[in-house]
Design a protein that fits this description.
about 240 residues; five-stranded parallel β-sheet; alpha/beta; about 10% strand; globular
Length: about 240
Amino acid sequence: MSALSENLRSDFTKLARAAAARLVKPLSALLFACFAAAPLLAQAQTAAAARDTVLIVGDSLSAEYGLKRGTGWVPLLEKQLAAEKKNIRVVNASISGDTTSGGRSRLPALLAQHKPGIVVIELGGNDALRGLPLDMTENNLLAMAKAAKKAGAKVLLLGMQVPPNYGGAYGATFSGLFTKVARAEKAALVPFFLKGIADVDDAVGNFQADRIHPNEQAQARMLANVWPELKKLIK
C-alpha cells in the first residue's frame, strides 16, 4: 500500500503541475496584455482630457489688463463651467498688446502643448489701433483658424469694431473681416465682443480710465456675449 500511495501521490503531483502550467500561460499572456495596454490607455485618457480644454488666444481684453486677478471674463468663464458641472479646463494664453501676427506665431506651440478641443481667438483690436493692413489681419486670422481646425479643434472668433473716428469704410471693412473669416472656415462667431459695453450711450462708465479696456463691472457682460456661442461647441 505504501508503494501504491507513493505512485498515486507522484501521479497527482505531475497532473497538478501540468494543470498549473497550462493555467499560467494564459494568465501570463493576460497580464502581459494588461501591462502593454496601460500606456495606450493612459495616452487615450490624456487625449480625452486635452479635448476637454478650451484655449483662449487673445490680447489685453482677455488678459485682465488693469483688473484684479480673477475678475476678468475668462475666470468668470471658469466659474460658469463649474456651475454647469462641465469638466472643462480653460487655458488662457492671452497677452496684453498682442496682435494677430503675434497670435499666429504663438499658436502652433500652444496647440502642440495643450491639444485643445476648442480655440477661442480674441485678436485684431490691436491691429486696428496700430493701423496695420486689414488684409494682413484677415490672413492671420484665417491661418489661425486653419491651424486650429487641422489640430482637431473647433474655433470661435470674437469679433471687434473700431470707434467711428476711424472712418465708416475702415470700420465696416474691419468688423466685416471677422464674419468673412468665420464663413470661410465655418467657425463660430461672436460678431462684436464688446456689444452692450462699447456701443451704448453711457459707454464711458464701462471702461477703465484709459477708455480702452473694460472695467471689472463690464466683464460679466463680455462673458454673456461669448457664452451662448461657446456653449454650442461644448459637448
